[in-house]
Amino acid sequence: MQRELEQARQTVSALEGIGAGAPPDPADAAARGELVIADRALEAPFWRYDTDDARHSFYRRGSAELAQVFATPPWQAPRETAPPR
Q1: pLDDT of 14-62, one tens digit each?
Q2: Which among 35, 18, 17, 15 has a CA at the least distance from the CA of 27?
Q3: Where along the chain do its domains lie?
């Protein structure tokens, strides 16, 4: 029983750093030494999403679009304007 209690405490402690319902962030896990990519050939493709700005769109600093982008959270947006899931 004591062992299970200690495991539960460790799990809760680990989850506290993640945030409510958010998946763990690979960059955070890597910084803590908790992420190991065993196959070096897969390392660059794994990080490409985070390091390739061409895959993402950005709003210009100070733009009207940036000012309103999260004025209505996506989950509260009318269905016809909500992003596809």
Answers
A1: 655 555 556 678 888 888 888 888 999 999 999 998 899 898 888 899 9
A2: 35
A3: 2-76
